[in-house]
Task: inverse folding
RNA sequence: GGAGAGGUGCGUGAGCGGUUGAAACGAUCCGCCUCGAAAGCGGACAUACCUUAACGGGUAUCGUGGGUUCAAAUCCCACCCUCUCCGCCA
């Protein structure tokens, strides 16, 4: 969420940044100024009357103490009551409408973010490794997975439906090996603390990181008594919300956390997309990196976090490129995002395998996550960042496709062999 | 699921329906004292919003939301959370 005062004082800038995102400012900011002044007007009036009422109440107390007659004052306050209630309703109403506007506004892109109209305008920052050479036509992972007997989409469809997967044998172990490898790397070498959060959260948490109120259709909702719970679409949600409504110790910043969790996404509106294989699933597992940073350090931390994610691919010997997302392609809550795209020879494309973002104070303001700068009495919002480190399912795909052999077996990269207990996946029957 | 206890500021912990935004103690910060420190003494110490050029003034907030009342931390109702005991259970 953007700061109300900031929006009010920098309306032209906000409009320009919204335009860069491909939005129509006059539409989303419609009536902003009118509602804002209406709200302040109502508050001022209401508080004036309340002050008068409080004054009268004090007077009543004083009179009663002295056993004097206070009935005139009591009647006066009774009369005030109705007016106050009316104004209260008016200001609450304006407040709600203003809040609706404010919560619907996306974060403003950082100044360094390339202005663009679509994902075609994303800018490549760097590239690592090179495409592996094959003296045969590399297969897509769904063919390899079936051939090896490690990936079973048919039975998953029977159990649950489309966009779910069952992994068997070394396929299942590969998933587990990748997760353990990633967590060990980030905790032992990159200084992250591992957390294991709940996989369902309440609405407040979804609101804190920006999934609600706008993106409910992307989530799985679980009715629970009067209230709803939600399956997490990413560990970002529970991990960032760990510190909701808290004041962090400045000396401990940046706080760096990592979590391995399943992620659940309804994928509404992507029906025709990526229907083959396990690129786009309703459930997938991901190792997430989350940071809470001082504002002045957050862009350095974004670079570090992105490199931490890249290190996973480097250790696995997987070719990738890093893209800076343009203003039209960055997520709702993000001020700047790097996507890491891994090379998939079976499909002859780069596919997103990690998305690393700096949300600045956007989430912190919604979730009320603050810290107290040294020597200052006032708290400030931290900056929150996160990135996949990495999406395990897509890493599984990358390993299988990049390390496939002519006979259909898959070699295991050196870094994973201790976790796999083997150097190769060979066919078995499902 | 059943029975009970409780939720107050950074912490502990008071709080007859009306000078309580909230005692006291502790923590922290600033002074004094000291060669320096400790102790002691004095002082400061919540947040948000409205208003003001500023000083300041005002309003709200004692788990959350309603209600009673001229007036609610204090009374009533609902809900949430924590703890203890019983039952059930991976």
Result:
């Amino acid at each position: 969420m953007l700061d109300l005062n900031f929006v009010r004082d920098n309306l032209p800038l906000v409009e320009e940044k919204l335009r860069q995102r491909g939005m129509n400012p006059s539409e989303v900011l419609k009536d902003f100024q009118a509602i804002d002044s209406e709200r302040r007007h109502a508050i001022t009036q209401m508080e004036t009357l309340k002050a008068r009422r409080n004054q009268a109440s004090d007077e009543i107390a004083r009179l009663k103490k002295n056993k004097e007659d206070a009935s005139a004052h009591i009647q006066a306050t009774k009369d005030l009551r109705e007016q106050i209630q009316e104004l209260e309703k008016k200001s609450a109403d304006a407040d709600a409408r203003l809040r609706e506007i404010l919560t619907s506004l996306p974060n403003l892109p950082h100044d360094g973010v390339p202005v663009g109209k679509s994902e075609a305008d994303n800018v490549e920052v760097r590239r690592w490794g090179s495409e592996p050479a094959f003296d045969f036509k590399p297969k897509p992972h769904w063919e390899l997975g079936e051939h090896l007997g490690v990936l079973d989409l048919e039975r998953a469809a029977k159990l649950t439906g489309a966009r779910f997967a069952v992994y068997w044998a070394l396929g299942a172990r590969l998933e587990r090996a990748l997760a353990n490898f990633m967590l060990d790397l980030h905790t032992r070498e990159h200084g992250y603390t591992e957390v294991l959060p709940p996989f369902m959260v309440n609405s407040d948490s979804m609101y804190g990181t920006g999934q609600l109120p706008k993106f409910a259709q992307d989530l799985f909702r679980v009715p629970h008594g009067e209230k709803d719970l939600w399956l997490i679409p990413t560990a970002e949600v529970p991990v960032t919300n760990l510190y909701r409504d808290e004041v962090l110790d400045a000396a401990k910043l940046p706080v760096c956390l990592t979590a391995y969790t399943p992620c659940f996404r309804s994928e509404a509106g992507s029906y025709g997309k990526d229907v083959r294989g396990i690129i786009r699933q309703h459930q997938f597992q991901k190792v997430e990196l989350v940071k809470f940073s001082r504002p002045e350090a957050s862009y350095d931390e974004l670079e570090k976090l992105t490199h931490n994610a890249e290190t996973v691919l480097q250790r696995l010997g997987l070719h990738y490129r890093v893209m800076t997302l343009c203003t039209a392609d960055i997520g709702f809550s993000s001020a700047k995002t790097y996507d890491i795209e891994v090379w998939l020879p079976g499909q002859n494309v780069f596919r997103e395998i990690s998305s690393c973002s700096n949300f600045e104070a956007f989430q912190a303001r919604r979730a009320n996550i603050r810290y107290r700068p040294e020597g200052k009495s006032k708290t400030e919002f931290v900056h929150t960042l996160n990135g996949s480190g990495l999406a395990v399912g897509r890493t599984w795909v990358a390993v299988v496709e990049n390390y496939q052999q002519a006979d259909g077996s898959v070699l295991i990269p050196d870094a994973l062999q201790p976790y796999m207990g083997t150097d190769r996946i060979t066919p078995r029957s499902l």
DSSP finds 14 helices and 18 strands in chain A. Residues 40, 43-44, 46-48, 50-51, 53-54, 56-58, 60-62, 64-65, 70-71, 73-78, 80-81, 226-227, 247, 377, 379 of chain A lie near RNA strand B (CB under 10 Å from a C1'). Chain A has a mean pLDDT of 91.
